[in-house]
Amino acid sequence: MVTKIGLTGGIGSGKSVISRLLRIMGIPVYDSDTEAKRIIATDHTVRRQLSALVGQDLFRNGELNRSLLAAYLFGKPDHAEGVNRIVHPRVKEDFVRWTSSYEGKKSLVAMEAAILLEAGFKSEVDFVVMVYAPPEVRIARAMKRDGSSREQVVARIHSQMSDELKRERADFVITNDGETPLIPQVLELISLLSENNHYLCSAKK
User: Residue 166 annotated as binding?
Assistant: First the structure.
């Protein structure tokens, strides 16, 4: 039985650092953002549906017009919902297939998704792990990483689910504030989930 970890957190929280640690510790991680881009690039049904929604110029010579998609997404609040209704079900299906490939090989796998809760991916995982960092730390990280202005980063933070809501819905919180050691927290998480996995497997026998 494979226990599925859902790894989430807002912009600048440092989810990718935790993902790297999990991979180093032998836990496969499904990067939903990367895989969504792959699906958009290769899934003909998704491409056709997105073109019908956004416009026929969305793909030029087979390549995604990222600036057009971005302009559409931020054009109106409900535009992102329309795109997500097309892409997210495919990501869920892909994650299920990906997870099944580890049956009998791994006891733990993870999905990294910034909008795991908002996208309804919680139903696909067994435990939700939130990566937390104070707002000012998140802002500084995102500004340095993306070259964005403070105003742009703050606007993105406000567009995402609040940390308070994420914390309420999470089963485990990892603090990534640049001061609290990460490895002991990740090891504690793996230990807890491994014990839970053993209990669930025993209960099914």
Answer: no
Q: What share of the chain is helix, strand, coil (3-state, %, to 5)?
A: 60, 15, 25
Q: What is the per-residue pLDDT across 45-77, written as a single tens digit (0 to 9) for each?
A: 999 999 999 998 999 888 899 889 888 887 787
Which of 72, 101, 130 delimits the end of a domain?
101
Contact of 2 with 198, CB cutoff 8 Å: no
Give the SS3 label for residue 191. helix
Do 138 and 80 share a domain, yes or no? no
CA dihedral of 60, 73, 116, 154, whole degrees rounded to 10:
130
Q: What is the pLDDT of residue 202?
A: 47
85 closest CA partner among 39, 43, 50? 50
The verdict on whether residue 191 carries a ligand-binding annotation is no
The number of domains in the chain is 2
Residue 101 annotated as lining a ligand binding site: no
Q: Residue 17 annotated as binding?
A: yes
Annotated ligand binding at 204? The verdict is no
Q: Is 15 annotated as a binding residue?
A: yes
φ, ψ (nearest 5 deg) of residue 156? -65, -40
Do the beta carbons of residue 138 and residue 95 sit within 8 Å? Answer: no
